[in-house]
Amino acid sequence: MPRLAYLGPEGTFTEEALRLLDPNAERLPRATVSAALTAARTGDADGAVVPLENSIEGAITTTLDEFAWGEPLLITAELLLPVQFSLLARPGTEIPHIKRVYTHPAAITQCRAFISRELPDAVVVSAPSTAAAAQEVSLPGSPYDAAIAARIAGEHYGLVELAGGIGDRSDTVTRFVKVSRPGPLPAPTGSDRTTLVVFLTDDHPGALLEMLTEFSVRGVNLTRIESRPTGDGIGRYFFHFDFEGHVADARVGEALAGLHRICGEVRFMGSYPRADGVAPQIKRGTADAEFAEAGDWLDRIRTGHV
Ligand SMILES: O=C(O)C(=O)Cc1ccccc1
After folding, report:
1. Residue-wise over 181-216: b if at least 16 C-beta within 10 A, else e?
2. Which E.C. number(s) belong to this protein (predicted)?
3. Which of 115, 181, 231, 246 is the least crowded, having the fewest Cβ atoms under 10 Å away?
């Protein structure tokens, strides 16, 4: 039974994602994404489940930066989870009396319309997670009047639901990933995704285009690209890429090798099954068999067998 750390406490969306990814895992709640990843790195846990991005606000930057700067980890699975938010409070609280709301920043950005319509005068404070907010609000002396969290977190911490489905959109999805210390890769399934972090050592005109060209000429379809500051001053960035395919695919392997040749550092973050099961688009001339045939053709030339 794997032991998986996650952004806790009990009742977070991350816990729901973990239960779906690995129903048999032992769950080890941690207070932050960083603490969950540290547990995976040190061996306190066999792996971790953390949020990576959502369909409204984009990346969870703590996760991206941990992946780039921390000890290497490997993504082995992903999950897309539709999330529904509820306004939760101690029994007896009424919406007009709510002055201070506590929740995770991703919930604040996804419930903006509700907050400005129903709680225009409330101060909204960032919490380490939605369930941490619900837990805090449940304490009798809490400085907060309400939390925004999953309905189940309200049930868990003895809060009542004052409003449900309060997200700006009903179709919001969060993408979670399971990570472990580097080891064997999940086998290719025919519907896979690969994640990389790429650092440039030599900034010059066209550097980003050169990276993109490595994908483009091999027919590799990108599914996410993100730039993050390196911290070394304004204008200094590194890049995250997600794209279709598995590193075992010839076109993906060739693109990686090309990036390795032209970029400062390429951190391979894993090839793993896609949660949506979508098969990659394979352009003419970029299938494994076509790469193999072209390699054989080149060998014949080089060995004088044309
Ligand atoms: O705080 C949580 O419950 C999390 O798992 C992070 C999060 C917050 C809001 C939307 C999706 C994930």
Report:
1. eeeebeebeebbbbbbbbebeeeeeeeeeebbebbe
2. 4.2.1.51
3. 231
- Indicate if ligand 1 lies below 6 Å from the C-beta of 180: no
Complex ipTM value: 0.98
Helices (H), 141-186: 151-157
Q: Ligand 1 mean position to 297 CA, how many Å?
A: 52
Domains of the chain listed by start with CATH number = 1-82+170-183 (3.40.190.10), 86-164 (3.40.190.10), 185-306 (3.30.70.260)
Residues 6+ apart with CB under 8 A from 186: 76, 77, 192, 270, 271, 272, 273
Q: Ligand 1 centroid vs 169 CA: distance in angstroms?
A: 16
C-alpha 83 – ligand 1 centre gap (Å) = 8
Determine the atom of ligand 1 nearest the C-alpha atom of 14: 5
- Does the beta carbon of 167 lie inside 6 Å of ligand 1? no
Return d(Cα 228, Cα 239) in angstroms, integer: 6
How many residues in total does the chain contain?
306
The verdict on the CB of residue 51 being under 6 Å from ligand 1 is: yes
Average pLDDT over residues 241-267: 97
**Beta strand extents in the chain (DSSP E only):** 3-7, 26-30, 47-54, 58-59, 74-82, 86-89, 100-103, 123-126, 146-149, 160-164, 173-180, 192-199, 222-229, 237-244, 265-273
* Torsional class of 231: left (φ above 0), alpha (ψ -120 to 50), beta (otherwise): left
- Please tell me the distance between residue 77's alpha carbon and the centre of ligand 1 in angstroms: 18
Determine phi and psi for 135, rounding to 5 degrees: -60, -45
Q: pLDDT tens digits, residue range 104-160?
A: 999 999 999 999 999 999 999 999 999 999 999 999 999 999 999 999 999 999 999
Task: Classify residue 163 by burial, with Cβ atoms within 10 Å: 0-12, 13-18, 19+.
Answer: middle
